[in-house]
Amino acid sequence: MSYRGITFNKQSCKSEDDALIFHTFLNGCVGKVLGCPVTYDEDHVYLGVGYFMTYGRLVNVVGTETLTPTPIEVGNQYNRLVFTVDLSKENTASEFKQGFFEFLTSYDDYPTLTREDLFNGGLVYQIPIAKFMLTVNGIGSFVEEMGSVNISEVWTTLSQDLESYRDQYDEYFTEQKREFTDFFNTQEQIILQMIADLQAQNFVTNTVFDTMVENFHEEIFGGIVTVDLKDSSGAVLQTLDYTDLSATRKLKY
Fold first, then answer.
1. Mean pLDDT of all residues in 110-139
2. Average pLDDT of the segment spanning 73-82
3. What is the pLDDT of residue 249?
4. What element of type H or E holds 38?
């Protein structure tokens, strides 16, 4: 069997399944969900009690976390405090090893984050907590970088994406309707010319021609008033209305 049930009785929901749901519906947002105030003094950074989200994975800070950078003896050092998800590590029933806080350091600039796609073979993803300069006197120039998961902003972004897709669909369907209308116009002119040629050669009498036009209009236009454009599931995305063709575009001679 090349598939498995997830949200079904007696089936299991793995951590990556749960993470994918959160990551998708939060539109990839990471950051604080509840609490998690960030503070500091000369020697330490503190992360308070709360919850935060990182790449669809929820972390609970159950007590104030005290984080201490390694002191330096000379110069100025760029520091960035991050929370790292490392799926190459193995958790145990009593110990959480796949997520941890760490300081990234450099004497040139603030270190960049590692952000791999955890749903496509990636193993490491980091979110920033804060950045600061570390001197012999301790922490300075402190800037918190950990934002919040704002549901309103998530839905605003999703709504904007939806509007963009709707505009693309409208443009596509408008073009399809124009091409369809052009096709009918072209065929009408071809058939009219064919009939005119036959009349010129006395192959069609007026009585026969009237009947032919009536039958042609009924068969070609009478059955095509609307056309439903559907997706792969059969749901109707848009209906193209050709009532104007069937009701008003009678063949002239």
1. 96
2. 96
3. 42
4. strand 38-40
Structure tokens at 51: 């919850």
Distance CA 115, CA 117 (A): 7
Locus of tokens 């519906």: 25
Lowest mean pLDDT among 56-65, 90-99, 151-160: 151-160
Residue 250, pLDDT > 50, answer no
What does the alpha-carbon distance between residue 162 and residue 25 come to, in Å, rounded to a whole number? 14
Largest CA distance in the chain: 108
Indicate the residue type of 19: A
Q: Which domains does the chain have, with CATH numbers?
A: 15-149 (2.60.520.10), 153-248 (no CATH)
Comparing 112 with 166, the larger pLDDT belongs to: 112
Position 134: which residue type?
Answer: L
Question: Any residues with CB less than 8 A from the CB of 170 and at least 6 apart, and which?
Answer: none
Over 90: is that where the pLDDT of 188 sits? no
Q: How confident is the model at residue 75 (pLDDT cuts 50, 70, 90)?
A: very high
- 93-102: which pairs have CB atoms within 8 A and are 24 or more residues apart? 99/54, 99/57, 99/59, 101/47, 101/65, 101/67, 101/129
In angstroms, rounded to a whole number, what is the distance separating the alpha carbons of residues 148 and 36?
10
Residues near 106 by Cβ (< 8 Å), separated by ≥ 6? 77, 78
